[in-house]
Each structure stands twice: as structure tokens, then as C-alpha cells.
Amino acid sequence: MTTVRQLLAEKGRHVSIIHPDDTVFNAIGKMADEDIGSLAVMDGSKLVGIVTERHYARKVVLKGKTSPTTPVRDIMAKEVIVTQPDRTIEECMAVMTEYHIRHLPVIDGDEVVGIVSIGDLVKSTISSQKFIIDQLVQYIHG
Fold first, then answer.
1. Which DSSP state fits 140?
2. Are 58 and 48 in contact (CB under 8 A)?
3. Structure pTM?
């Protein structure tokens, strides 16, 4: 079973961050520039929240707020569901399904060491299944 640590070794451990006092406009711009769907909200070295495109759509656009004047702290999820590097991909998928979330910050001790998305998990699962299928085909055709 593939672990989050293994996934991060392949994907990379870069964590895109934003400060809670920064504007939603800057957060959305950063997500667009980096082609990602979430940012870890950090106050110094402390994870204080997560902000996603979904937060923007539901808490800014639909509420008639403006992104240049709204701080990230007003729309971010403050109670962040996290995972650890030794968790399996399957465990992370179960957590994401249970809590209806698409991004999991990865915490090692007190440090944020990565973020995994549902897309990362699905891609890893498909890759693992393809490898197993290829091995079985080779075995059968032996």
C-alpha cells in the first residue's frame, strides 16, 4: 500500500501558503498562477487554516463579497483535517470522503510537509492498479 510519504516523494513536498490577513483576491491569484486548488493558511510556522476554490465560490461569490477587500481569514476553514506521512492513500481517501474535502495538509510533528489532493490520490491509485494489471498480464502470457 502506498503511503503519503511515498506519494510526496514522487509529487514533491512544495506547500503553497498564504497569510490569514492577505486578501482573497491574492489567494485566488496565487492558486491560478500555480494551477492548484488550495493554499495552506500559515501564521508564521503555524497552520491556522486552509483556503480552497470552493471556499471562494461559496463564501465570497455567492455571498456578494468582494475578493480584493475580504481577508482570507474570513473564508478559510479554521478546523483543518490533516494527515500524517505514514498514512496510506486508502486511509486518506476514506477521510476525504467522510469529511467531504478535497485537500489534506500533511503534518510531520509540527511542520506542514505537503498537501495531497483527491486528484493526487486517484492518480496514485490508478498508477498502482495499472502496475498490478501489467504484472498479471505478463504472468499470464509468461
1. H
2. no
3. 0.85
